[in-house]
Amino acid sequence: MTTSLSGRLSAELSNLRSSGLLIKPRVLDGANRARTRVDGREVVNLASNNYLGFADHPRLKEKAAAYLREWGVGAGAVRTIAGTLRIHEELEQQLAAFKHTGSALVLHSGFTTNQGVLGTLLKEGDLVISDALNHASIIDGLRLTKATKKVYKHADADDLERLLQENETDGLKLVVTDGVFSMDGDLAPLDKLIAVARKYGAVTYVDDAHGSGVMGKDGRGTVHHFGFENADDVIQVGTLSKAWGGVGGYAAGHADLRELLINRARPYLFSTAQPPAVVGGLVAAIEEVQRDPSLMRRLWDNTHYFKAELSRLGFDTMGSVTPITPVLFGEPEAAFEASRLLFEEGVFAVGLGFPTVPRGSARIRNIVTAEHTRADLDQALEAYDKVGRKLKIVG
Ligand SMILES: *Cc1c(COP(=O)(O)O)cnc(C)c1O
After folding, report:
1. Domain count, the chain
2. Of the N and C termini of the chain, which has fewer Cβ atoms inside 10 Å?
3. Cβ–Cβ under 8 Å, residues 194 and 253
């Protein structure tokens, strides 16, 4: 008998429900700020990727509004037909200059950037070696290629070297890693990884979604943080949707990379260009981070303060070294219960369990931003102390 749509939907949903994986997103009743209303409650927001407070920043909103008025609501076509506005090219030149790369292309999101770039670059006979904890959009991007795929142990340059030795090819070799890992808040050891990649003639591909606007001078990213500027054997991709406050993705690197992607990257070729208001916000974001150094300073002051205070209270922040600050609870039930109790205390922070993170390492992931005040963080810490004691996570 043919499966009915309602049969398929209810079977899938009840599977999710019974395994405790059904997601019910909370709803924000205002702009995504460090302090906002969520599901009708005033909260300190530790759940966003709004590292620099750009999602609702006055200067970004001003430029977004100006571009909206001058250039319209929509781009009107895909980039390759009639959708490339002067402002798209200006944003790309600004990004290439900011990243110190030979070229940069803007795509619709970080997700589609990985699909577009990996799907374009890699061919049969090539070798791609990917970190075990890479983001879902990298995994999906690699599904689009016929290259030989291998996975190295998380952040392990020795394991990467072993795989490069065992899989010699005349094709292109690509080492793929996140710059900052989104669940643990640790850094890819790019100094070691790029050195190994170079030894075997491989190109390194860094998805810096959580590192862009966070790491390096003025937020130039993790590649910049490790001192690999202007290197033709490093490709930097990332999102314009996290620290940069809007939505979009970019690919930056070799001078010829942009032109090949324009001609071949399918998400770029077959999806309408970004709307002018988004472009305006992003142009202003990259100006603002360089104009106002206090943004990066506050982001990192807050990060260091929050991590140190959580440790002092007895919580395990899992060795994270970036504003992504996980707090370990172990079992998913404990993490989800803690998230619920924190919300009652006016703190919005999301619990994560298997399969998003490995079994036994369920956690709450906090993201500290430049916009949080000391009072915001102190309120969150007080709530953590109370909830941690109640659940006997700290003594
Ligand atoms: C968030 C994220 C993406 C997706 O970026 P979007 O612009 O939200 O599509 C891609 N890669 C990594 C590593 C991410 O953390």
Report:
1. 2
2. N
3. no
